[in-house]
Amino acid sequence: MHIDDYHSTDGTSIATDNKPQVAQAQSSSASCPSCGFERASIVRMTKGHPHYAALKCGRCDRFLDWMPAPATEGKRRDTSAKIDRRLKLPNLTRWEQNFLQGLKGKKLSPKQQECLAKIEAKAGA
Ligand SMILES: [Zn+2]
Predict the structure, then answer these.
(1) Alpha carbon distance 78, 84 (integer Å)
(2) Could you tell me which residue, 3 or 66, shows the higher pLDDT?
(3) Residue 102: phi, psi to the nearest 5?
(4) What is the pLDDT of residues 18-50, one digit of tens each?
(5) Ligand 1 centre and the CA of 49: distance in Å?
(6) What is the DSSP string of 64-89?
(7) Are 31 and 16 in contact (CB under 8 A)?
(8) In the list 49, 79, 104, 109, which could disulfide-bond 45, CB 3.0-4.6 Å?
(9) How far is 96 from 35, CA to CA, in rounded Å?
(10) Side-chain half-sphere exposure of 11, counting CA atoms within 13 A
(11) CA of 116 to the centre of ligand 1 (A)
């Protein structure tokens, strides 16, 4: 994420001419469709809102995109995928299988991480 990248020192927006459109489309800091301003502001949503934050044009306040909460969501999914892979290991005991199942979708405590590391070490993963 590079919200502030396209700002020159005098505060005006640059790079509209020499930047390929494709690159802008891939980035959430694409220029505003209303006014072309390339600096977005992140507006945090209230707790309980389905979205973490909104990306709004820094000039005209037009809504540009939703922003996911940083890291946490992806991290959790990552852990679940990791555990899924561990569950496919051939030499797990019934207890280890249950242990791994119980970890899915949860934030691991240091003790659980340690236990997970032991299972991985034992399985040679
Ligand atoms: Zn705008």
Answers:
(1) 10
(2) 66
(3) -70, -20
(4) 433 333 333 445 689 999 999 999 999 998 888
(5) 24
(6) EEEEPPSSHHHHHHHHHHHHHHHHT-
(7) yes
(8) 49
(9) 57
(10) 2
(11) 48
Rounded Cα distance, 76 and 4, in Å: 28
What is the 69 CA–ligand 1 centroid distance (Å)?
A: 23
Q: Rounded to the nearest whole angstrom, what is the distance from the C-alpha of residue 70 to the centroid of ligand 1?
A: 24
Beta bridge partners of 26: none
The pTM of the full predicted model, rounded to 2 decimals, is 0.38
Q: How many angstroms separate the alpha carbon of residue 17 from the centre of ligand 1?
A: 17
Residues 47-106 have pLDDT tens digits of: 888 898 999 999 999 999 998 877 655 566 677 888 888 898 888 899 999 999 998 878
Amino acid at 69: A
Q: Which residues of 26-65 are buried (b: 16+ CB within 10 A; e: fewer)?
A: ebebbbbeeeebbbbeeeeeeeeeeeebbbbbbbeeeebe
CA 32 to ligand 1 centroid distance, Å: 5
Q: Which of 50, 32, 49 is nearest to 41 (CA)?
A: 32
- Token pair recorded at residue 58: 């820094």
